[in-house]
Design brief:
With 498 residues, the chain is mainly α. Helix content is 66%, strand content 0%.
Amino acid sequence: MLRQPGLNTARRGSLRLSATAHGEDQPIRAEKPWADPGLALPDLADPDLAEPDLADPDLAEPELTGQDPDRAGPRLAGRHRTQTRARPRYGDLFAIREFRALWSAQTLSYAGDQIAQVAIAVLVYARTGSPSLTALAYALTYLPPIIGGPLLSGLADLVPRRQLMIALDLGRAGLVTIMSMPYVPLALMCTLLFATVLLGPPFAAARAALLPEVVPSGTLVLGFTAGNMTFQAGQAGGFLVGGTLVALLGAHRALALDALSFCLSAAVIVGWVRNRPLAETASAPQRSPAAAAWSATRGGVAVVFRHAGLRTLVLLGWLAGFAVVPEGLAAPYAHTLGGGPLTVGLLMAAMPAGMVAGGMLVSRTTSQDQRVRMIGWLAALSCAPLVCSLLRPPLWLLVPLLVLAGAAGAYQLAAADAFVQALPNAVRARAFSVAQTGLLAAQGLGILAAGMTATRLGPQSAVGIAGVLGVGTAAILASIWTSAASTVIRPRPRDRKR
């Protein structure tokens, strides 16, 4: 039910990978920064794992020449047309009809998701009064990808992406509708929740893989930025609105609104996103869909983890497993502060609001190279404010601390952009799905562990301990990234000749 765009992307401070988190980010180069022949991925001996060479010029994204009126940039007048790269603008991006459709569908579903997250947290904690059970139910919005996410996400390279997105939206709408019915047992609700979230990774992978076919290369990064910023803004606003709606309407009616958001998202895709054929890949013997999907997943794992730059970016994104703890423990934390559903919504909204502000600040004040080099230490800063929870701060101080942590979490956007742009179209969906799945799994396991800790030590201590562990892990990865960053921002040979 709850979607992460990616490198959360992910959603949720994502890397929700939203795709990113997913991430959809600032105006940096549209070329693939890891397409340098010297940085190409190693050949894979297993034919099932074999991936196209990232340095193969046949895999490079084609330059737009104006043949597609929806994607072509402006033509230059004059006899001798020398194309100059103008700084892309959001106005150019939203002038593309299909992008507006994808963005609208994303906005609708995100808004419903955040309302449902508040509803689930409040509903489970009200029924059980247990921080660990509340965390367990909330973790179910992250953990299903461990089991089936990579396998199902491979479908985005095997099934037309538009049709896949529509089918997944309608399937999730039906599941959430059942969840919204009163008197549904808690065990059945958790099972339905598990099934609903299981359908999220293939949807996110399909959308991320479709976006480069919808927008021109010069505005691709802005496309990811718009999606991630929408996700984070939708989280902040959705959590606040969700807390209000749960207090006014009740948790079950709030879940019904999430089901409606899936239906509207599917309708938008049906009406305004056109069909496209699948990307051509190397010919291979015919296999069953399950075998083909599993092979695609294995190939995605190989692409990500056999390249040092990709691997480091993914691990930095997965640090969201520490940063997400305050969101997962919002209901018991609000209870210790004497608050109700509105306080729950406020605690959940603080970090996404900070990420929106941080993303805007970073994009306006830094260059691409600076953003890439800052990723490691911003990752450490995204966990540092959580350590202050050990001092039991009051609500008026806790919220700004969470906003600061979210602002530093904007590093996820730069990491996600570099990751997605490094991949050719033929393997983009499967590699992105691996990163997205790992992000969701890290967040789910982090919330689950924090819930067990909160049962023994209290939610404040659980959040503080997550901050300590996150800072330590981020410091190690940041030191590695200091040297690895040069492999990401190194220009391609054709760029050096200009």
